[in-house]
TrEMBL record:
Family to which this protein belongs: Belongs to the pyridoxal phosphate-binding protein YggS/PROSC family.
Known function: Pyridoxal 5'-phosphate (PLP)-binding protein, which is involved in PLP homeostasis.
HAMAP family for the chain: PLP_homeostasis
This protein's name: Pyridoxal phosphate homeostasis protein
Organism: Duganella flavida
Positions of modified residues (N6-(pyridoxal phosphate)lysine): K36
């Protein structure tokens, strides 16, 4: 059995066990396979093992992979953009991805909405929140989330689904949970405020279990599926 298939099975088993351990509904957590830096063959292998949702951080790399997988006649895959967005690069994102997890500015959201092709389903959106408050991290400040969320929810060709965060790495499980709990609290406030959200995109290879305990509905997992990344290879 291929290593990618083995890893997918192991992660799926961990997700199922953690969902149960935390008292949540079965199937309430979706696995997003983060394939950045890995080639189309790796995605193909994961697709053959049944994985359908893939996350990409770098636009050109993602577009090349989407094209390669289409050409290879892969089953219909769902592509999520999870990297930083430059405002002059919104059109290919709007045209080629099903989801965007990293919206943090109104202007970007407006462009994505305007550029979403007619006839495609609305682009599914998460707002990225800077939950750890580090100066260098991307994401909107927690106190600004509500205003942006209401603006994005009103745009015609987008569907605001929820919030996303990449907390500061922490080894300690309780520390990991505390950061995810802050995102969940914000999410619950927005829902109480009338926004129909259903998505908390949080948790990666190293902190997926803590995220599930705090209500993650999408975990974004890369290295635990595909192996360690080598950024110098390309
Ligand atoms: C790379 C990346 C991931 C996956 O990280 P791993 O630690 O490899 O699981 C998840 N989310 C985002 C936004 C990423 O950039």
């Amino acid at each position: 059995m291929s290593l990618i298939r083995q890893n997918l099975q192991a992660i799926t088993a961990t997700i199922v066990a953690t969902v149960q351990e935390s008292g949540r509904q079965p199937e309430s957590v979706q696995l997003l396979a983060v394939s950045k830096t890995f080639g189309p063959e790796a995605v193909q292998e994961a697709a053959e093992a049944g994985q359908r949702a893939f996350g990409e951080n770098y636009l050109q790399e993602g577009l090349d992979k989407i094209r390669a997988l289409n050409d290879a006649g892969a089953p219909a895959l769902e592509w999520h953009f999870i990297g930083p967005i430059q405002s002059n690069k919104t059109r290919p994102i709007a045209e080629n991805f099903a989801w965007v997890h990293t919206v943090e500015r109104e202007k970007i959201a407006q462009r994505l909405s305007e550029q979403r092709p007619e006839g495609m389903a609305p682009l599914q959106i998460c707002l990225q929140v800077n939950i750890s408050g580090e100066a260098s991290k991307s994401g909107i400040a927690p106190e600004q989330v509500a205003e942006l969320a209401h603006k994005v929810a009103a745009l015609p060709n987008l569907t605001l689904r929820g919030l996303m965060a990449i907390p500061e790495p922490a080894d300690d499980f309780e520390q990991q949970r505390a950061a995810f709990a802050r995102l969940r609290t914000l999410y619950e406030q927005l829902r109480a405020d009338g926004l129909a959200l259903d998505t908390l995109s949080m948790g990666m290879s190293a902190d997926m279990r803590a995220a599930i305990f705090e209500g993650a509905t999408i975990v974004r997992v890369g290295s635990a599926i595909f192996g360690a990344r080598n950024y110098n290879k390309a």
